Amino acid sequence: MTLMLYTQTVEKLRALRLEGMIQALEEQRQQKDILRLDFEERLGLLVERQWIWKENRGLALRLQNAQLKISSATIEDLERIPRSIGRSNGASFVIRTGGIPPSVTRGRFLALVRNAGRRWRLHSLGTLPGRPRFGNGRSEVGFSTAQVPRQALAVTVVGRPRAGGRRERDLILRADLPWEQGPDHPSRARVDLETVLLHEFGHVAGNPRHVPRGCRDTPMVVGLATGEWWRSTTDFSYRACNQATG
Ligand SMILES: [Zn+2]
Q1: 229 alpha carbon – ligand 1 mean position (Å)
Q2: How far is the CA of 153 from the centre of ligand 1 (A)?
Q3: Distance set, CA 157 to CA 1, 72, 129, 219 (Å)
Q4: What's the pLDDT at 1?
Q5: 41 and 152 share one domain
Q6: Ligand 1 centroid vs 181 CA: distance in angstroms?
Q7: Based on the domain organization, do 104 and 53 belong to the same domain?
């Protein structure tokens, strides 16, 4: 798009009060990865952003009017993952909204994924319907039981580098687990979704290593049991930790 035409388009979008689309369009212009998506997918991302922008604006106004404090369920915890835990390659991903299990609401899933990605300094390009699929050249996050090894809660599959040094990095969660979507901590029967997202996004961000299980201040432990969680450096609980402190 030439600069002049682009400027006119943005002016018209602004006149139509499509601020969400303008923001998404600006972001797409900065993302080299975006050329992997075809026109309809890119348009879908713009429309999705406008939709979210409008929803958020409505929510903000309602909260203001009711003078409510934002509950811990909706607050965006922007505590970054400390560099001592892992580094970030700044990768981008698309969120797949198909196959979300009944124990997880779509809104909560999107909020957890966006938040966990942001904490690892990764960028969400928006949502697409359907399930994630390894091998399509696009980095995706979503639920799909078929592609996750039997004993795993989730898997991050990293492809070979392609032209431009980009790799496909798919974060795939098993759909058939008793997920705890929060904000409550998981019971002894449930797997904490936020912890698993923070762990797998660590792999997406380019950290392949695990640390042994134990009382560790990191989401990058080799295995997570039901009832365990790591949500921040001040909010984690591993069984070994509880035993150590009695
Ligand atoms: Zn892992």
Answers
A1: 14
A2: 9
A3: 34, 32, 20, 18
A4: 62
A5: no
A6: 19
A7: no
